[in-house]
């Protein structure tokens, strides 16, 4: 690892001042799981590492019925999985964080670090998109909020401006009868990094099949997680059948611009996502996806 | 490069040290402190051979910088045994074929110890999930799962 200086600011204001001072020479360091690896591989070579792991007030999870869930940027994956309000109000999110990567990474990695590093081969972004999350960003001029879909820009790229630090994420309170599903596909169980994932959120009608407020999001197979609006519209207000699940899956596949690399080429990733979209819709509607359309 | 004066509790003993900013926790333990039970395997966060406990939570020390240990408590595989008396997990790994070459064993022991601390009688599935951040290329894992189950029974007096 190339040499660097570590700064350990005591407050957010000090951390922001350090970023301002060192500009492009600085990297923000939270849990370290991604950044230590990236520095060892010399994918990045900051001259100054600004460690925010010790900053106060960024490690809490709070829930209230009007504001919903707030997760501080320094909350570790395992803490989200174990959190009582997350398990109660967002069980799909608790399951996601409980199976992210492996136990060691869940003990050390932070949700803020995961989002800011913006490696597409991960679980949270698509599910957070489906949940309508927003990010809270601290800067020298104060805080700003951005919808998750505006924060996630591209491959390893977020909307964070130089000198800004992600402070937390907020997820709106679940609507009555809201249901959320998340599925990921790994190339091998030991690899831990999904090749494709899909998240679905909707408000269920009385018969369980008349869906409103549908959001469908995909991740990992694409450079940046994204919502699939056309597929969501197709699923809104219509009886959910296997044929409709296939129709929505075709709309997902049509609009993709997937990653093509050694872990899966574009054709493979498209096929996986198409199957995953069909399955998640069918399962959410209580249909047997193994039957042909 | 910055140097950091850190204080930590290591296997129950308070210590202080000066570490350069880019010192990995794994290198600090092995090269500076001579605790070579913690292994460097893949050095990319995949294999788990470098697993140690940071404040009781199993962590890959190749993905952690030494300065992050400041003010915290570390347990390495050297801290598992009580003097000459091996931990129940160490006994069980020996008697149940939980190792062959042994290189991955310290990591598996630390991951297993965290599991049993929070879940005294885990199912096979829970054991396999808890050990999913560790790779073994000798045993095929069955001996390791058997060993963790046997250690759980022993620790519960069964």
Report the count of strand segments of chain B.
5
- pLDDT < 50 stretches of chain A: none
The rough form of chain B would be described as globular
Helical content class of chain B: 25-40%
Q: In what order do the strands lie side by side in the largest sheet of chain B?
A: 2-1-5-3-4
**Greatest chain-chain interface?**
A-B, 30 and 30 residues
Average the pLDDT over all residues of chain B and give the rounded result.
Answer: 97
Quaternary arrangement of the chains shown? heterodimer
What is the element string of chain B, with H for helices and E for strands? EEHEEEHHHH
Share in β-strands of chain A: 15-25%
Estimate the global geometry of chain A from the Cα principal axes: globular
Derived from helix and strand composition plus strand pairing, the structural class of chain B reads alpha+beta
Number of strands of chain A: 14
Sheet with the most strands of chain B? 5 strands, mixed
> What pattern of helices and strands is seen along the backbone of chain A?
EHEHEEEHHHHHHEEHEEEEEEEHHH
Cα(first) to Cα(last) distance of chain B is 54 Å
Chain-averaged pLDDT of chain A:
96
What does this structure look like?
The complex is a heterodimer of chains A (293) and B (158). Helices cover 35% and strands 25% of the residues of chain A. The radius of gyration of chain A is 19 Å and the shape is globular. In chain A, strands 4-5-10-6-7 form a five-stranded antiparallel beta sheet. A four-stranded antiparallel beta sheet of chain A has the order 11-12-13-14, sandwiched between helices. A three-stranded parallel beta sheet of chain A has the order 1-3-2, with helices on one face. The model of chain A has no long low-confidence stretch (mean pLDDT 96). Chain A has 293 residues and is an alpha+beta fold. By secondary structure, chain B is of the alpha+beta class. In chain B, 32% of the residues lie in helices and 17% in strands. Chain B has five helices and five strands; from the N terminus they run E-E-H-E-E-E-H-H-H-H. Chain B has a five-stranded mixed beta sheet, with helices on one face. In chain B, helix 2 crosses helix 5. The termini of chain B are far apart.
């Amino acid at each position: 690892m190339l040499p660097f200086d570590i700064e350990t600011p005591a407050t957010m204001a000090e951390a922001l001042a350090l970023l301002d001072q060192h500009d492009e020479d600085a990297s923000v360091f939270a849990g370290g799981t991604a950044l230590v690896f990236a520095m060892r591989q010399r994918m990045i070579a900051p001259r100054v590492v600004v460690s925010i792991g010790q900053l106060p007030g960024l490690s809490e999870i709070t829930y209230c019925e009007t504001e919903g869930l707030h997760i501080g940027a320094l909350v570790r994956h395992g803490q989200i999985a174990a959190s009582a309000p997350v398990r109660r109000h967002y069980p799909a999110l608790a399951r996601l964080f409980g199976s992210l990567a492996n136990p060691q990474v869940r003990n050390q990695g932070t949700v803020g670090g995961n989002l800011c590093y913006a490696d597409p081969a991960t679980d949270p972004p698509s599910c957070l998109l489906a949940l309508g999350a927003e990010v809270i960003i601290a800067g020298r001029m104060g805080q700003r909020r951005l919808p998750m879909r505006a924060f996630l820009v591209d491959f390893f790229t977020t909307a964070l401006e130089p000198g800004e630090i992600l402070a937390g994420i907020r997820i709106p309170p679940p609507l009555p009868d809201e249901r959320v599903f998340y599925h990921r596909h790994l190339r091998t169980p030991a690899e831990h990094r999904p090749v494709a994932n899909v998240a679905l959120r909707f408000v269920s009608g009385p018969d369980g099949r008349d869906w409103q407020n549908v959001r469908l999001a995909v991740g990992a197979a694409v450079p940046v997680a994204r919502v699939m609006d056309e597929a969501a519209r197709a699923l809104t207000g219509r009886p959910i059948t296997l044929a409709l699940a296939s129709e929505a899956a075709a709309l997902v596949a049509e609009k993709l611009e997937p990653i093509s690399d050694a872990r899966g080429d574009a054709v493979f990733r498209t096929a996986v996502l198409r199957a995953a979209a069909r399955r998640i819709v069918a399962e959410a509607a209580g249909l047997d996806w193994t039957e042909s359309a | 490069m910055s140097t950091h004066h850190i204080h930590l509790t290591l296997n129950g003993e308070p210590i202080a040290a000066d570490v350069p900013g880019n010192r990995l926790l794994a290198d600090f333990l092995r090269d500076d402190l001579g605790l070579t039970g913690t292994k460097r395997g893949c050095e990319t966060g995949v294999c788990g051979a470098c697993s140690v406990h940071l404040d009781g939570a199993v962590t890959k020390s190749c993905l952690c910088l030494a300065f992050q240990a400041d003010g915290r408590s570390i347990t390495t595989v050297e801290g598992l045994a009580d003097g000459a008396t091996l931990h129940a997990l160490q006994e069980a790994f020996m008697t149940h074929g939980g190792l062959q070459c042994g290189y991955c064993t310290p990591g598996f022991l630390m991951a297993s110890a965290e599991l049993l601390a929070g879940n005294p009688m885990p199912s096979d599935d829970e054991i396999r999930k808890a050990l999913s951040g560790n790779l073994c290329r000798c045993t095929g894992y069955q001996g390791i799962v058997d060993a963790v189950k046997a250690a759980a029974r022993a620790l519960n007096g069964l």
